[in-house]
Amino acid sequence: SLAKLSLNRCSEVSDWITLNVGGRYFTTSRSTLQSKEPLSMLARMFADDNNMYLMNPSATDSRGAYLIDRSPEYFEPILNYLRHGEVIIDKYVNPRGVLEEAVFYGIDSMIPHIQKIIEDSKSYDSNHALT
Amino acid sequence: SLAKLSLNRCSEVSDWITLNVGGRYFTTSRSTLQSKEPLSMLARMFADDNNMYLMNPSATDSRGAYLIDRSPEYFEPILNYLRHGEVIIDKYVNPRGVLEEAVFYGIDSMIPHIQKIIEDSKSYDSNHALT
Amino acid sequence: SLAKLSLNRCSEVSDWITLNVGGRYFTTSRSTLQSKEPLSMLARMFADDNNMYLMNPSATDSRGAYLIDRSPEYFEPILNYLRHGEVIIDKYVNPRGVLEEAVFYGIDSMIPHIQKIIEDSKSYDSNHALT
Amino acid sequence: SLAKLSLNRCSEVSDWITLNVGGRYFTTSRSTLQSKEPLSMLARMFADDNNMYLMNPSATDSRGAYLIDRSPEYFEPILNYLRHGEVIIDKYVNPRGVLEEAVFYGIDSMIPHIQKIIEDSKSYDSNHALT
Amino acid sequence: SLAKLSLNRCSEVSDWITLNVGGRYFTTSRSTLQSKEPLSMLARMFADDNNMYLMNPSATDSRGAYLIDRSPEYFEPILNYLRHGEVIIDKYVNPRGVLEEAVFYGIDSMIPHIQKIIEDSKSYDSNHALT
Known about the structure:
With about 130 residues, the first copy, chain A, is mainly alpha-helical. Chain A has helices at about 1-10, 30-35, 40-45, 50-55, 75-85, 95-105, 110-130; strands at about 15-20, 25-30, 65-70. In chain A, α6 runs antiparallel to α7. The interface of D and E includes residues 5, 29, 32, 79 and 86 of D.
């Protein structure tokens, strides 16, 4: 039933995590950070056996959020990708910024999709610039 | 009278709810979440008989907001739709992101409208790219 | 003198009000909400004789802001209109969203201006789509 | 030396001020608000001899920020102009909104620049609409 | 290994710093502010031997963030550049605003890249305006 469904989804989310990415807060779950690309740097940072990072108090701010010294804006499409598996970038967002972050966090399966978006926007722009 | 009208609207809103969607806060009412699509997952999560979710302290953050591990940006048009029944998406927002969330929350009546917006923006873009 | 002028403007603003519109905070004054359209629902909600709304603690959040279950984004041009009487909408903002809110709050004098903006953007888009 | 330079810039900034413009916070210095247009209403509001405004507790919020009942979005380019003297408006921002605020705050030297931006965007749009 | 890699990156970030740039908060590390352009004003402000700035309580706000009286929006691409060395500006952001900040903070290696972006957007716009 639907009530069960919502419940199951919630119980999956056993472990809420707040990230402070360059000054903006993102709330997500450990399972979102780990399921899609378990070997990525991002997944490894929040793996259960990574005591070095998770136990290190200098890596959290005063609200308990994990500090990451990167762009918050370009991190958003990456977190959404980890949530549902689609690469979705708004029109005003520079896809090169998202690529830079995907490489940094090691979300390898996302990279060819972003590269295609960059290629497409180039050909669209040049079509326009040449008319 | 107008004073009555405002009053009635307010008394309808008996039950304020704050959602923490991926780190951003949304304030709304239980009736907004439930009236439009009572059988959707979103409505079921906040139904009176869903003790499992509403009574579960792990599902709220330190400010008492209900935690949802999804994109905040693409949730906005969905919440507005539940408020007034119109599908309104800003120009810079990728409608595919909104579609993804409508499917997740189970707001079925919204889906064909979003699909039409996606189709329209494609034909608009290709008209431009081909000139 | 200029010092007097600023003073007068400030003394007019006798009564500051904070609104929590769908989760975002707006600070304004009672006179802004009431002078332009005294009979609108928004003005009536904050009228001195509306004890039902203003005295109702369930209508304020923990910071004392008045709760309104509507879109924050599309409320901005409406509040600006009440401040200075001009209808100004940014390019990326969907004017249909602003229209929806103007109707809800009962800011009737704003409606034909927004409808004209919607018409103009349609003819602009179709000129582009047809080239 | 460079260390000296940064120091000098900092010592100039003797007096930090936080403004609550319509609900958003802006941090700046008294000297920024006053140097560029000393006779503007904005400069006068924060002049040392304006005891009426600066000593008036009803003009500050609970965080000590000075309350101004105006649009935050269109105030941004004005504050930047006072910081460095250039009129810079993003593409999606409606320049008419910035003009409205420049007139309100009395930043007269900025007005012809904004008017030119409005004219330029009109002729650009009509060139596009007519193709 | 990957676990090592994430660890190394974290231990590099020994010193977290929060900046209050014009009212918005940015979290970064001292090494990000210093490695790329060690002689820039920004790097000098946070150098270990700059006791004048770092020891000066008037330069921090109540949350301990370092106060900088400049635009937050145009600072973002600059901070990202210091993080990974790429100049990435979103479509809606006016590159002239970023140039102004690069000059102010003394990030000299970034300036020719921004100037090229300004030139490119001019020729793109004029191509469009002339069709």
